[in-house]
Structures are given as C-alpha cells and as structure tokens.
Write a structure and sequence with these properties.
An eight-stranded mixed beta sheet has the order 3-1-2-4-5-6-7-8. The model has no long low-confidence stretch (mean pLDDT 91). A hairpin with a 7-residue loop joins β1 and β2. It is 18% helix and 28% strand. It has 160 residues and is an alpha/beta fold. The chain has one domain: TIM Barrel, CATH 3.20.20.70. It starts with a strand and ends in a 7-residue tail after the last strand. It has three helices and eight strands, in the order βββαβαβαβββ. Its EC number is 1.97.1.-. Its cofactor is [4Fe-4S] cluster. It is an enzyme of class 1 (oxidoreductase).
Length: 160
Amino acid sequence: MRYLEVAGWKKNSCDDGPGIRSVLFLQGCSMNCPGCHNRDIQKRGEGSLMSIDEIISFVESRCHNKRITISGGEPLEQWEALEKLLISLKEKGFDICLYTGWDFRQIPEKVFKLVDYIKTGNFVMEKRNVDIHYVGSENQKMYHLTGDGVCELLDLRLSA
C-alpha cells in the first residue's frame, strides 16, 4: 500500500514528544479506548487518502526543524504504508516520534530501527495522570531509541 489515511496536521506542538514538533495524525483506530483524546479520528474512511510522496512533500514544506510525531488514531494499523513513510522520513534526516496504543511487545521489530522516540500503551481512564508529560495515563511509556539499538525508558513526570 502506498497510501495513508490522514486525519490532520498540527504545527509547533510541545505536547506530542520531546522538543517542538509537527504532528501528523493518521485516521482510524480499532482500540476504542474509553476517554480517548482523539475519538473523532477513530473511524476509518473519514480521513484523506494521501500517497507517501504527497505526505513527504507536505511534511518537508511545513516541518522545517525536521522533528515530527506520527499519531492517530492508531498509526500501526496502517503499517504497510507507514513503514514506507518512516523509511523516507528517516532517509531525509527527520527526528521521528511515533505514538501507538500498542503494547511494546506487539510492535513490529522494524519500527524500533525507524523511529527516535516511541510512546507505547493504550489510554486507560482509571490510570489517567496529568502530571506525566507526553502521555495520558500511567501505563503509557515513552522510549528514546538510539541508532546503536539502545532503548531508553524516559522519565516523564513533571517536576513540582
């Protein structure tokens, strides 16, 4: 597949991964987590189909600091095309953060070689915590991935 279903775009976000980042939201998520922050983009077929080349052109013209977060919906539900996008972005020198609701063990191994940061875990309303940066609930984790295969769990607690 050479197309992704895109829900939207946000520029200059400080809440979607380390640093100031642009965010590409992909349409569709089958997890249906109660209290989901992006409930309005869960249903497939309501976004815009864009080719990988169109997305790359769009991102390059708007994301000048080369820091991008790919969120959703659930990006990994469009894995075949997402993989192609991640490869292209990585080749162009982008710092990539991927937000997924999947558990760490469910994520295809190749993902870890294509992103710099990854947020894992679905949103759990009973574990909601506004004192943890970049995530919505305590079960969610953010990892920094280095080129040498090291996966570092980040401490996201906000200082008092």
